[in-house]
Amino acid sequence: MVGGYRGKILAWDVENEALEDAAPHNLKQSVFSRVLGQDYIDFAFRYAREADPNVKLFYNEYGGERMNSKSQAVFNMVSAMKARGVPIDGVGLQMHYGLTGVMPAGEVEQNMRRLGQAGFEVHVTEMDVMAPLPDSAALQSEQARIYRGLYRACRAVAQCKVFVMWGIEDNDSWILTFRPGNFGGLLFDAVKY
Questions:
Q1: Of these residues, 17, 20, 107, 142, which one is catalytic?
Q2: Which of 1, 15, 159, 163 has the largest CB neighbor count within 10 A?
Q3: Average pLDDT in the 48-70 region?
Q4: Catalytic annotation on 126?
Q5: Does residue 94 carry a pLDDT above 80?
Q6: Where are the domains of the chain?
């Protein structure tokens, strides 16, 4: 697939969500790890680089965007890959947030800086902010505050180059199917066609 799009794509998420949620965040068992061994991720990155020498190659993960044990596990994994000569260019941070809890923009920025200082480009790859129904101006204001804080965190770090929403309008959001009782959490309200 990478070769088929050679020269046409900015970046590939070569490996996605490989780490377990629970500490110590080991590699998840998968068909790839069982058949190819624990170093299958290294092979995937090397083959992707062979297929397109100019595309940026990323590891993408959820739950590791702020300073916590999972972000440390991601940092350790990608740093070790780089030290082994694996051609990895960056880390994608998924950001599926809700309105509850403290908005971690400062910790996200700190993690982005840590990754950048280690030589990785950072992309925000799946941004949305879930909020409970019924929708209201107050909830949308809080949602906007969280978006603004996380966008500013990315802008404050030179190595954060991409900020992608996980959809455009609320009626197309994964949240409606997988988190019923919430509105879509995207930038634009649901549009009636």
A1: 17
A2: 15
A3: 96
A4: yes
A5: yes
A6: 3-183
